[in-house]
Amino acid sequence: MAIDTSKLRTSIPFFREIEPALLERIVPLMFVKKLRKGEIIFLEGDEGDEIYFIGSGAVGIYTFDKAKKVTLAFLREGEYFGEMALMKPGLVRSATAETLMATRLYALRRIDFQTLIEQDRHLAFHLLDYTMERLRKANQQIYDLTFLNVKTRIIKRLLNLGQEYGGQQIPVKITHQQLADMVGAVRETVSKVLQDLQDQGLIEIRDKLIRLTDVHTLERKLMEES
After folding, report:
1. 181 pLDDT exceeds 90?
2. Does the reported pTM lie above 0.90?
3. Domain HTH crp-type, which positions (predicted)?
4. What does the alpha-carbon distance between residue 33 and residue 150 come to, in Å, rounded to a whole number?
5. Is it the case that residue 1 has pLDDT exceeding 70?
6. Are 99 and 45 members of one domain?
7. pLDDT tens for each residue of 183-221
8. DSSP assignments along 49-81, one per residue
9. Exposed, middle or buried, 61 (CB in 10 Å: 0-12/13-18/19+)?
């Protein structure tokens, strides 16, 4: 299936800063994967060979700590994952990736990426810049898990999701268990906090869709607790 270069550039930020001539060489090497909700893209421990860019849909990245599921990232259209597979042959996946809804992915194999960076080293530095930003976010997540209480972590996560989706409405259905996995808590505690936030009129939940009805107060509560 042919990939529309202009659509790729507009929908995925990673490609916007790449020179048009280089992008024209990248696109023919990419291929599309269409997946249904709940499909496993790769498992923790699998040998990695591809990087994935999300054309549409959403993907959850998670691992297990002593049999407890821990969600590391909640990725949406325009983001990418699996980049460590490009760094060195034989590296295994450090987490599992699963679709959260019907999802369209653009994939690029390591061998093709290596051919591209031999032609243009700027591509490797471009990927490094994006990967460093992801590392910064991971470090922030570790800080939050260590120093913030559960309620504050939930509020911060909801605000971050709202910002990522550009508004008060979080358009992806999120279960209490999924949110618990994101903030490192048990489902019962998350359910109690969400009910409390609803009772205060700060959020609204309908059919597992969360709407932030009072962002200003949520931000104030976050500042008070952080």
Report:
1. no
2. no
3. 148-216
4. 36
5. no
6. yes
7. 888 899 999 999 999 999 999 999 889 999 999 999 998
8. -EEEEEEESEEEEEEEETTEEEEEEEEETT-EE
9. buried
